Amino acid sequence: MIKSIIAILFYISIFFNSNLMCDENTKELKIGLLAPFSGIYKNLGDSLLLSTQLALNELNNKKIIIIPRDSGSNDKEKLNTAIQEIISSGAKIIIGPPDSQDFEEIKKYKDTIFISLSNKESKIENNIISIGISLESQMRTIEDFIIKQKKKKTVIMYPKNEYTNFIDERIKSTKLKNYKIFKYNPDPKVLTGEIEKLTNYTQRKRNLSTRIEILEDKDDEASKRELSRLEQKYTLGKVNFDSVIIIDFGNSLKSVLASLVFADVNEEDVLFTTVNQWFDESIFYENSVKSLYYPSINFDNFKKHNNKYYKTFQLYPNEITILAYDALGLIYYVWNKNKGINSINDFFLKEKIKGKIGNFNFNDKKVTQELKIYKAENKKFKEF
């Protein structure tokens, strides 16, 4: 079997002599940057621009020209104006948009390639390539981890919201053989009751009360020891699953974890996993679960990128801006390899691409990432 060639994209031009590989039509590489520089997502847009500038500084190639334009925040008019201005400037490829909600709008610009930072769609289709950390990549990594841990019964949990149908479709291709889907109401007032039903909490609590009543009538030492132990517990009896996958984020994720702990789901018996949390340190302080596992990008590279960003701009980056850094590196690699970029087909790469986040794969007209499992424990992120 022929091994895949790994093309290293550390975004310094040590592998390429761009002067030799350019012809008259590719003397300049014009790249649009479509980001919200106004509105409620302005901070994200500013951070994407600075991260792109950081990558551009490392490339140190004057032939690369970045054309940033404001797409606004949920503003179709600004979005279209920005795209048209970028195209008028001579760019045929654009980094952005960061959100998949704009996909239907940008599809009409058929002659322009968009490298989106969204993670909603892994397929390369029409004129859009999404390089965000896809749910497909995350779920594949989690499922492999659960299988390796020899867990047999998994509950896949996710909220009822606008992404429910999207998650439903992904779950259909799961590798797990024995699993249950549990969709919950994200309202904490409703959630606790739903988790209690899932975990058979009422019956397990009743089991404990019944057993304690029996032991209280006994005087032997063994019964007294058991009684003393049970008085420290909240329930008696295990749940009927040994692992959970929680597809959720932020406060909603923390509410689910807190509800599971309240329902006396023991970490010794159940493996807790979730999706990529971008090394959010608040999980250390607000999380009821001591050991939480999730897939993510290369943590060392993530820290180095953030540190360099801060050292350069005296600001902290938005976590997804590392994707803009990789997007520029990817475009630069393809441009050099093909002596230009003619169509989206140029991105149907057989080789792996190593970016800051880790390895990208472009097989079968899909973008997937090779992720690692990390464990959030004792206020540290540890690669598992």
Describe this structure in words.
By secondary structure, this protein is α/β, with parallel strands linked by helices. It has two domains: 199 residues, Response regulator (Rossmann fold, 3-Layer(aba) Sandwich), CATH 3.40.50.2300; 122 residues, 3-Layer(aba) Sandwich (Rossmann fold), CATH 3.40.50.2300. Helix 2 links the parallel strand 2 and strand 3. Helix 2 packs across helix 13 and helix 7 packs across helix 10. The longest helix is centred in the first third of the chain and has 18 residues.
Q: So what's the overall shape?
A: elongated
Q: Termini separation (Å)?
A: 29 Å
Give the H and E element order: EHEHEHEHEEHEHEHHHEHEHEHHEEEEE
What is the mean pLDDT?
88
Structural class: alpha/beta
Strand line-up across the major sheet: 3-2-4-5-6
CATH architecture of the largest domain: 3-Layer(aba) Sandwich
Largest sheet data: 5 strands, parallel
Provide a count of the helices: 13
Estimate nothing, just give the exact number of structural domains: 2
CATH topology of the largest domain: Rossmann fold
**Radius of gyration based on Cα positions:** 25 Å
Total strands:
16
